[in-house]
């Protein structure tokens, strides 16, 4: 008959689950807002009802589609609206992204006759009947990185990547992303734009990026019907995560965009270490009541560290080393 397996305290079982939690993705980061200057005149509340219906429909559809356009109301109270998610977002992330937009529109714009909110992963817009239309090629927003890249064939690499993007997005269902010699580019057209118009829109956005951003290390150009972004990584484009929710590539070194993730990792590690110490103190109180079980505990600890290392990498090896020191001081001294 084999030795009985040690009973694992619930707190240690919970600890195994902690590393599975993912940090929040950046797809819900605000890029820009566009709010019409004229507010809705709505004494009877008919526009508010139509707007609520539009928002409800768009959010509902975002769980199963990356783009959806609809119209509600009648006569002069008609309101049109649409949403679009970035092409590499999963359905769950698309829904989570779009779900934020009605609240943001109300918070940032109020109730104007037209509004558009752009996040990194999605956007939503609405407009009442009769609102002045603008060209699909009109630039709504630009963002150019503060660092300039001089020489080293930067312009040639960027323009080659842009050329690939122009041809790829038109033949890739309106969304395309690729990398070329340390340059990462992404482009997307509005979902109801035809291939030819999509190609022209992206071409215009590329030309605006070349003029507006020049030799900037990164840039984003948002036109009314399409957008593009590019980033130059001197040390090579980082590998993309296999997780759909982390599909976007981080900004180039020096941009500071990873600070929040670093802080989250440090805090998570501190919480994990503190939790281990609490569990060990609990285990110590149990072991004192059962003479001869310390060797079994050591065996369990070794097993736990090996499993943790296999699943979660070398960061957990360091935690196991810390735990071992703690055991020596608090558990094994008896």
TrEMBL record:
The region annotated as signal peptide is 1-23
Task: Kindly give the membrane topology term recorded for this protein.
Answer: Single-pass type I membrane protein
Cellular component terms, GO, for this chain's entry?
plasma membrane; plasmodesma
Q: Which residues cross the membrane?
A: 263-283, 303-325
Fetch the InterPro entries from UniProt: Cell2Cell_Antifungal (IPR051378), GNK2 (IPR002902), GNK2_sf (IPR038408)
Q: What is its main location?
A: other
Q: Which stretches make up the Gnk2-homologous domain?
A: 28-131, 136-235
Give the matching Pfam families: Stress-antifung
Q: Which GO terms describe its biological process?
A: plasmodesmata-mediated intercellular transport; transport of virus in multicellular host
Q: Which UniProt keywords apply?
A: Cell junction, Cell membrane, Disulfide bond, Host-virus interaction, Membrane, Repeat, Signal, Transmembrane, Transmembrane helix, Transport
Q: Where in the cell is it found?
A: Cell junction, Plasmodesma; Cell membrane
Protein family per UniProt: Belongs to the cysteine-rich repeat secretory protein family. Plasmodesmata-located proteins (PDLD) subfamily.
Q: What is this protein called?
A: Gnk2-homologous domain-containing protein
Naturally occurring in which organism (per UniProt) = Escallonia rubra
Recall the taxonomic lineage recorded for the source organism.
Answer: Eukaryota, Viridiplantae, Streptophyta, Embryophyta, Tracheophyta
């Amino acid at each position: 008959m084999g030795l009985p397996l040690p009973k694992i305290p619930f707190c240690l079982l919970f600890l195994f689950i902690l590393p599975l939690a993912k940090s929040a993705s950046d797809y819900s980061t605000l890029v820009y807002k566009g709010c019409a200057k004229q507010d809705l005149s709505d004494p009877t509340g008919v526009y508010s009802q139509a707007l609520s219906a539009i928002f409800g429909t768009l959010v509902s559809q975002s769980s199963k589609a990356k783009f959806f356009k609809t119209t509600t109301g009648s006569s002069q109270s008609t309101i049109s609206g649409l949403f679009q998610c970035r092409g590499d977002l999963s359905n769950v992330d698309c829904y989570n992204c779009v779900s934020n937009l009605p609240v943001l529109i109300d918070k940032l714009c109020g109730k104007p006759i037209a509004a558009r909110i752009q996040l990194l992963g999605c956007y939503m817009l609405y407009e009442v009947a009769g609102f002045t239309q603008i060209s699909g090629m009109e630039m709504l927003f630009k963002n150019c990185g503060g660092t300039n890249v001089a020489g080293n064939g930067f312009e040639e690499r960027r323009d080659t990547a842009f050329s690939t993007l122009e041809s790829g997005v038109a033949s890739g269902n309106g969304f395309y992303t690729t990398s070329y010699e340390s340059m990462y580019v992404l482009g997307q057209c509005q979902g109801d734009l035809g291939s030819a118009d999509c190609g022209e829109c992206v071409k215009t956005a590329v030309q605006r990026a070349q003029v507006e951003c020049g030799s900037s290390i990164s840039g984003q150009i948002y036109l009314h019907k399409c957008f593009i972004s590019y980033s130059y990584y001197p040390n090579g484009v980082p590998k993309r995560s296999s997780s759909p929710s982390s599909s976007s590539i981080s900004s180039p070194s020096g941009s500071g965009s990873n600070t929040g993730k670093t802080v989250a990792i440090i805090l998570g590690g501190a919480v994990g270490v503190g939790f281990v110490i609490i569990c060990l103190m609990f285990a110590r109180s149990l072991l004192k009541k059962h003479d001869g079980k310390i060797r079994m505990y050591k065996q369990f600890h070794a097993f736990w560290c090996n499993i943790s290392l296999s699943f979660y990498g070398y960061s957990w090896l360091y935690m196991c080393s810390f735990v071992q020191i703690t055991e020596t001081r608090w558990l094994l001294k008896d």
